[in-house]
Amino acid sequence: MSGRFDGRVGLVTGAASGLGRDVAMALAAEGARLVLMDRDAAALDGAASAIGAVPVAGDVSVAADMARAAEALDRLGPVRLLVTAAGMLGPTRALPDVEETDWDRLFAVNVKGTWLALKHALPRMEAAGGGAVVTIASGAGLAGNAIFPAYSASKGAVVLMTRSVAVSHAAQGIRANTVCPGQIDTPMLRGVFDALGEEAAAVEATFKARNPSRRFGAPSEVTGAVLFLLSDAASYINGAALPIDGGRLA
Question: At what angle do helices 100-107 and 149-169 cross, to 10 degrees?
């Protein structure tokens, strides 16, 4: 590996599985020193022990839990990296049919969780002389979505939150970009198909047929973009919302 992140300290949320775990593994392989956060304590411990990271089991939407992650970061050194991968899909219903409790939980995890991570990381990055943030939004945050309208709204909020950070913190040497994956072959996507039962195969085939690439993305294809945006090679990229969707939104 190139060692692009040798000695750099950072936080990855949602790091027990899926894209968060994949990003954490890749960052550690290139020298980053990490705090990993997730609600799944057992899976988190496994991920952290595999790469020598510090696990903090907790809910990204709970301020006290995020504060514990920030305290763990302080023990590692100046903070320069943040990846917010914690997220949930939420209800697959038309907006009038979404329950208030489901809406609130979805926005607590996807939006408030991202905000809390930024709230703690940005002052630390400023004190360190700069840093790089990559939030993980979704292609659904760039275009309307009839199947997941509440999720689409939450990820749209993440996109504009990130762009606002890019504008407001560039003078402090902090860059903030977001990646917007399409259908990536992760446990979250497989969970959608599992819930469909006998219809799963037909729906999966339809989704693939609608994509110019005729396939789902691999987690590594998102991770590669995340690491590039965090790296010095992307030093003049700030405020970007990058679709990683095989051309679906083209």
Answer: 30
For the chain, 250 residues long, the average pLDDT of each consecutive 10-residue run is 89 96 98 98 98 98 98 98 96 94 98 98 98 97 92 98 98 98 81 74 81 89 97 98 94
Overall number of domains in the chain: 2
Between the CA of residue 155 and those of 65, 165, 187, 196, 238, what are the distances in Å? Answer: 22, 15, 18, 23, 18
194: helix, coil or strand? helix
Q: What is the pTM of this model?
A: 0.93
The verdict on residue 247 lying in a domain is no
Q: State which amino acid sits at residue 210.
A: R
Q: Is 72 within the bounds of a domain? A: yes
Residues labelled as active-site residues: 151
Domain span at 194: 184-216
Let me know whether 210 and 124 are in one domain: no
Are 31 and 128 members of one domain?
Answer: yes
Residue 90 and residue 16 share a domain: yes
Output the six-digit token pair for 8.
Answer: 């750099």
- Reported as half-sphere exposure (CB side, CA atoms, 13 A), residue 26 has a value of 19
Q: 21: left (phi > 0), else alpha (psi -120 to 50), else beta?
A: alpha
Helix axis angle for 113-128 and 63-76, nearest 10°, is: 30
In degrees, rounded to 5, the angle at the alpha carbon of residue 114 between the alpha carbons of residues 110 and 120 is: 155
DSSP assignment, residue 232? G
Distance CA(81)–CA(32), nearest Å, equals 9
Residue 45: inside a domain: yes
